[in-house]
Amino acid sequence: MALLPIITAPDPRLRVKSEPVETVDDDLRTLMDDMLQTMYDAPGVGLSAIQVGVAKRVMVVDCADDREDPQPIYLVNPVIREASDDLRAYEEGCLSLPEQYAEVDRHDRITVDYLDRDGAPQSLEADGLLSTCIQHEMDHFEGILFVDHISALKRAMIMKRLKKAKKLKATG
Ligand code: ZN
Fold first, then answer.
1. What is the pLDDT of residue 29?
2. Low-confidence residues of the chain, pLDDT below 50?
3. 142: how many CB neighbours lie within 10 A of its CB?
4. 15 Cα–ligand 1 center, Å
């Protein structure tokens, strides 16, 4: 397994729409394994393929808390089949927007259909952090970042900080 470089905002690659996966093969499994290792190393609770520069509808998530055993989930071509009307606010971050956080409202509970690491159809019901996390990662497939859900003013402040951080990294 290998650690992959994570693309950070602002970067036009994060705005690219991801394509559905046609076959779950060994190349895709290698990508997903590398993504999982990259996510744990960061550390984070979710990562979409576009964040490592691959425009495919693939994500890995693990929302187990520190006291639990790891619970990695690989989701290929996930589709939300059902979503609760009630929303839940959660303070989100993103490995592509390091050290930036904001509260975002999302569906409290969702039912997701997807293919697993072996390409087998699966369905899962998620609530709480896992529900938020899957919706956040699915946004990446559409080129949407969590800051697109907050006020223009807050978004501008966060993007300004990210640009500054990138400049500092580039120069020094
Ligand atoms: Zn993200």
1. 98
2. none
3. 13
4. 12
Kind and range of the H or E run holding 25: none
pTM for the predicted model, two decimal places: 0.96
- The token pair at 2 is 């290998």
Give pLDDT, residue 171: 83
- The pLDDT, as a whole number, for residue 67 is 85
Enzyme catalytic residues: 137
The reported pLDDT for the residue numbered 156 is 97
Q: Which fold has domain 12-171?
A: Peptide Deformylase (3.90.45)
In the structure encoding, which two tokens stand for residue 59, read together?
């994500």
Ion ligand 1, residues whose Cβ is below 5 A away: 94
Q: Distance from the CA of 59 to the center of ligand 1, in angstroms?
A: 10
Going by their DSSP bridges, the two strands 58-61 and 97-107 should be labelled as unpaired
CA of 137 to the centre of ligand 1 (A): 6
Question: How many angstroms is it from 133 CA to the middle of ligand 1?
Answer: 8
